[in-house]
Amino acid sequence: MSASTPRGALDGIKVLDLSRVLAGPWCTQMLADLGADVVKVERPQAGDDTRHWGPPFLKDDAGRDTREASYFTACNRNKRSITVDMAHPEGQALLRRMAAEADVVVENFKVGGLAQYGLDYASLKALNPRLVYCSITGFGQDGPYAERAGYDLMVQAMCGLMSITGHADGQPGGGPLKVGVAVVDVFTGLYASNAILAALNARDNARNGTGEGQHIDMALLDVGMAVLANQAAGYLATGQAPGRAGNIHPSLAPYQDFRSRDGNVLLAIGNDGQFARFCQACGHPEWAQDARFATNTARVQHRAALLALMEPVLQTRSTAEWIALLEDKAVPCGPINTIAQAFDDPQVRARGIRRELPRDAGDGIAHVATVANPMRLSGTPVSYHRAPPALGQHTDEVLRELGLDASAIAALKAGGAI
After folding, report:
1. Distance between CA 270 and CA 249 in Å, rounded?
2. Are 80 and 396 spatial neighbours (Cβ–Cβ below 8 Å)?
3. Are 51 and 391 in contact (CB under 8 A)?
4. One matching Pfam family, short form (predicted)?
């Protein structure tokens, strides 16, 4: 980090990242963006699995595909990469030495998988009682499924998310669908980073802090259930499991996509005032006075009748014309963009969502494009000081900080520990 880089909120926090794929790396990228020094430990020669999950691949300076998948870059910004063989006794010793100086360890191995290497919570706590140790698994540290491997797609199915995603049975394209992003992994990373911050505060709080860290048990299935949000609340209140309804909202109307004259347009009307203003703007103020549509509850109950009236009207204007008509009337309305269109949106561009980070790993990749962290802190802003690293790019640097000289590092390389 350069001298001109603002100090982050987590400046001084050291994180040893033993995780791979998405949930764990998403968590540690959040911490790195906030200023923590995150050292990502990868397997020699192979690295994180997602380095190979392509296409698509990063391109070199000449525009040719490299052997590094773009997937990896989604969740490994601002980290330093080292390669260590944790199955090697000297590799294990290195990692224990690093953990003794760390504030946080994040891992996503199977339950009990790190005990054989002396890298489990009990072993590392004995070396460093202040350590906050976060384990991320599919199903948690206990329960009948604890030993199972867990993946986002599996958990989206098991937690019920796929049962409420997609068109209803009997409709064209009906059937359960996964979300287009591994949202359970992403949410697990977010919950994990929140839990880590809470544990650090509990450790360091001057009034009631213990001075000790703790073990955090994060499970994809737990998170999948938690983010069902209003759908889970509805089931708990009624005992009736909700089903799939496409883009219709079960508790709001009209709150969905419609055919416009040239494509699709989305209306997200969340209260009666917005509905009345929409009706006035589209030339049908009488709809808002109709007892079937005057309140949101009534509109939900008479959704079919309301849509029968609205659908022909929505097709009389283009998407852009609807947006222009409703924009100054505080009626939420917008396009259904492709990802390319979203990145080209004037608001997205104004907010600087695309970030180009220089990479000096000597691998022919000069810059890596990433998506900005959405947290905007006025005093300790997120920084973008490192591109997602090349495999093992910082091994020598980190080991020198541990106190190893060139001959000791060379010996570790020769012995296969790094």
Report:
1. 10
2. no
3. yes
4. CoA_transf_3
Q: Are 50 and 22 in contact (CB under 8 A)?
A: yes
> CA-CA-CA-CA torsion for 190, 192, 193, 196, nearest 10 degrees?
160
- pLDDT greater than 70 at residue 6: no
pLDDT number for residue 4: 58
Nearest-angstrom CA–CA distance, 105 and 14: 9
Calculate mean pLDDT across residues 295-299. Answer: 97
pLDDT confidence of 361, banded at 50, 70, 90?
confident
3-state class (DSSP) for residue 68: strand
**Secondary structure (DSSP) of 286-348:** HHHHSTTTSSHHHHHHTHHHHHHHHHHHHTTS-HHHHHHHHGGGT--EE----HHHHHTSHHH
pLDDT given for residue 206 in this prediction: 67
Identical fold for domains 14-227+351-415 and 255-338, yes or no, is no
- Residues annotated as catalytic (active site), given as ranges: 185
- Using only the alpha carbons of the chain, give its radius of gyration: 25
Give the start-to-end residue ranges of the domains of the chain: 14-227+351-415, 255-338
CATH number of 255-338: 3.30.1540.10
Q: What's the average model confidence in pLDDT over 128-151?
A: 96
Token pair recorded at residue 276: 């009345």
Reduced 3-state DSSP string for 167-187: ECCCCCCECCCCCCCCHHHHH
- In our burial notation (b when 16+ CB lie closer than 10 A, e otherwise), range 147-161 reads eeebbbebbbebbbb
In angstroms, the CA 387 to CA 384 distance is 8
C-alpha–C-alpha distance, residues 156 and 176, integer Å = 10
Query: 29 pLDDT band (50/70/90 cuts)?
Result: very high
pLDDT of residue 5: 58
Q: Which architecture, in CATH terms, is 14-227+351-415?
A: 3-Layer(aba) Sandwich (3.40)
Tracing tokens 């098991």 back to the chain, one arrives at: 158
What SS3 state is found at 258?
strand
Residue whose entry in the numeric block shows the structure tokens 């394209």:
173
Distance between CA 115 and CA 322 in Å, rounded? 60
Mean pLDDT of 290-305: 97
Note the pLDDT tens digit of each residue in 163-173.
Answer: 999 999 988 88
The answer to whether 173 and 165 are in contact (CB under 8 A) is no
